[in-house]
C-alpha cells in the first residue's frame, strides 16, 4: 500500500516509531503506512495484525514528530504574501499577517476587504510552493464562514 503524495508530506515515513499513550500505559509501535479514507485516517502498525490487537489500542493517543513541510515548516514568516487556495482551487486571499498564540500560529488572509483567520499547521497544508508563492490548504468545513 502506497500513501498518497499529500499524505507522505504530512505524516511520518513508514518505519517511524510512534508513541501511543493512554492514562496508564505507553506503547511504542512502528508505523507501516497511513491511508486516507475520505476525511478519516487509518494507521497500520507493523506489530498490529489482528482485530484483537487493534482493539487494544482504543483510547490511546498517538505522538510523533510531524515531518517538515518542504524544508521550512517552522518558518511561518516565509508565507507572508503567499496566495492561499483550498483543495478545490478556490482562492481565499493573500497572507497579510501572522499571529502566534502559544504554540498556535494563525495566518491573516485578506481577500478584497474581508479578513479570514486560518490556522497554520502542517496537517492543514497540502502544498507550499515558494516559487509560486502559493499555499494550498485543506481547511475544516465551515472555517471560511466562521470569519464573516
Summarize the model shown:
By secondary structure, the protein is mainly β.
Question: How does the SSE layout of this entry go?
Answer:
Blueprint: H1 5-10, E1 17-21, E2 26-37, E3 40-45, H2 51-55, E4 61-63, E5 83-86, E6 91-101, E7 104-111, E8 114-119, E9 125-129, E10 134-137, H3 143-146
Parallel strand pairs: 5-10
Antiparallel strand pairs: 1-2, 1-4, 2-3, 5-6, 6-7, 7-8, 9-10
Count of strand segments? 10
| Distance between the amino and carboxyl termini | 42 Å
CA radius of gyration: 18 Å
Count of alpha and pi helical runs: 3
CATH architecture of the largest domain: Roll
Helix coverage percent: 10-25%
**Element order, helices and strands?**
HEEEHEEEEEEEH
Describe the protein in words:
The chain is mostly beta strands and 148 residues long. The chain has helices at 5-10, 51-55, 143-146, and strands at 17-21, 26-37, 40-45, 61-63, 83-86, 91-101, 104-111, 114-119, 125-129, 134-137. The protein has a six-stranded mixed β-sheet with strand order 8-7-6-5-10-9. A four-stranded antiparallel β-sheet has the order 3-2-1-4, with no helix packed on it. The termini are far apart. The model is unreliable at 66-73 (pLDDT under 50).
Amino acid at each position: 500500500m502506497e500513501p498518497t503524495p499529500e499524505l507522505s508530506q504530512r505524516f511520518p515515513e513508514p518505519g517511524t516509531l510512534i508513541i501511543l499513550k493512554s492514562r496508564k500505559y505507553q506503547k511504542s509501535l512502528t508505523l507501516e503506512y497511513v491511508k486516507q479514507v475520505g476525511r478519516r485516517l487509518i494507521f497500520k502498525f507493523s506489530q498490529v495484525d489482528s482485530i484483537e490487537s487493534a482493539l487494544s489500542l482504543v483510547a490511546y493517543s498517538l505522538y510523533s514528530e510531524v515531518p517538515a513541510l518542504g524544508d521550512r515548516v517552522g518558518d511561518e514568516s516565509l508565507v507572508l504574501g503567499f496566495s492561499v487556495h483550498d483543495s478545490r482551487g478556490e482562492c481565499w486571499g493573500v497572507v497579510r499577517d501572522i499571529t502566534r498564540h502559544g504554540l498556535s500560529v494563525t495566518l491573516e488572509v485578506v481577500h478584497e476587504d474581508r479578513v479570514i483567520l486560518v490556522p497554520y499547521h502542517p496537517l492543514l497544508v497540502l502544498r507550499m510552493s515558494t516559487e509560486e508563492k502559493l499555499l494550498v490548504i485543506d481547511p475544516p468545513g465551515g472555517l471560511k464562514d466562521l470569519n464573516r
